[in-house]
TrEMBL record:
The keyword Secreted does not apply. One of its GO terms (molecular function) is DNA-binding transcription factor activity. Keywords: DNA-binding, Transcription, Transcription regulation. Residues 7-63 form the HTH lysR-type domain. InterPro entries: LysR_HTH_N (IPR000847), LysR_subst-bd (IPR005119), WH-like_DNA-bd_sf (IPR036388), WH_DNA-bd_sf (IPR036390). Belongs to the LysR transcriptional regulatory family. The keyword Transcription applies. It comes from Rugamonas rivuli. This is LysR family transcriptional regulator. Transmembrane segments: none annotated.
């Protein structure tokens, strides 16, 4: 294994000489003797076989070679400081990685706000975000892939805090045949039209959700794809109200005039996988979710 001839300490001394303007000033800034500073730079140049500094009047300036090498050395010094900060975070119990599974129903604007608040305090913690549909977040908990999950149903053996209710509304394009009937709709009307649903991303205990009695049903894996299909006039479905506000306002979607069942609600729950063993990063992220949902972006109602 090759061992570098130069040390980070030598490069730090060189950087101090350049930034402070001379050997004496660097020695004072580093709390060293001027002779030790001079020796370390002389030794560094000898080890590399390259002149790094030249004296211009009373100031020490980098040579062209010195500029190129110190630029790379600054990156190494920055990496070294970050490595020490990471070690300090780990010593304090901060996890190197936090996994979170989030049901696709959770508002994206809230999720972004949560992560923005979390990031400054967790610069050395990686976040692994898994976006799920239906039982997908439950699978992530049961398979111990995540530390935190936002679920639409609490799996056996776990406890959680209800975050919010998501309201669904039955919709179709304004030109859809169901709207052309010009009256209140019954279940039989729906059963004769194409219903578009999203497939459960979970595999352990997959489930269907909502009304599924249509004679023709298409299943997709992406909530966004379902939205685009329904906006184009290809079928109907119950969609989360907060995700279709723009489409409703622009006239791309229109609520179906169902006599019963036009709207339904689904609760989202926050679960910390192992509350007793949760580290600082997991606790901070979970608390940020609670705070943002309670005090953060307000989902304005359709009619104000």
């Amino acid at each position: 294994m090759k061992i570098p001839r130069s040390t980070l300490e030598q490069w730090q001394v060189l950087q101090a000489i350049v930034e402070c303007g001379g050997y004496a000033q660097a020695a004072e800034a580093l709390h060293r003797s001027q002779s030790s500073v001079s020796y370390m730079v002389a030794k560094l140049q000898e080890q590399l076989g390259v002149e790094l500094l030249e004296i211009d009047g009373r100031r020490a300036r980098l040579t062209k070679n010195g500029e190129a090498l110190l630029a790379r050395a600054r990156e190494l010094l920055g990496d070294a400081f970050q490595l020490e900060q990471l070690a300090g975070s780990l010593a304090e119990g901060w996890e190197p990685q936090v996994g979170i599974a989030v049901d696709s129903l959770f508002p994206v604007e809230l999720l972004v706000q949560v992560l923005r608040e979390f990031e400054p305090s967790a610069t050395h913690t990686r976040v692994n975000l898994e976006e799920t549909v239906l039982s997908g977040s439950e699978d992530a908990l049961l398979e111990q892939r995540v530390d935190i999950a936002i679920v639409s149903r609490v799996p056996p053996g776990f406890l959680g805090d209800v975050l919010m209710d998501i309201e669904f509304v039955a919709v179709a394009h304004p030109c859809h045949p169901l709207h052309a009937l010009g009256r209140e709709l019954e279940a039989d009307d729906l059963s004769r039209n194409l219903h578009i649903v999203v497939r459960d991303s979970g595999t352990l205990n997959p489930r269907d959700h909502g009304w599924l009695n249509s004679n023709q049903r298409w299943t997709v894996t992406s909530p966004h794809t379902r939205l685009e299909m329904i906006c184009s006039g290809l079928g109907f479905g119950w969609l989360p109200e907060h995700k279709i506000r723009t489409q409703l306002e622009q006239g791309l979607l229109k609520p179906l005039p169902l006599r019963v069942g036009q709207r339904r609600k689904q609760s989202l729950t926050l679960i910390v996988a192992n509350p007793e063993l949760a580290g600082p990063a997991t606790c901070r992220l979970a608390n940020s979710i609670r705070k943002v949902v309670k005090e953060g972006i307000k989902l304005r109602p359709l009619c104000e």
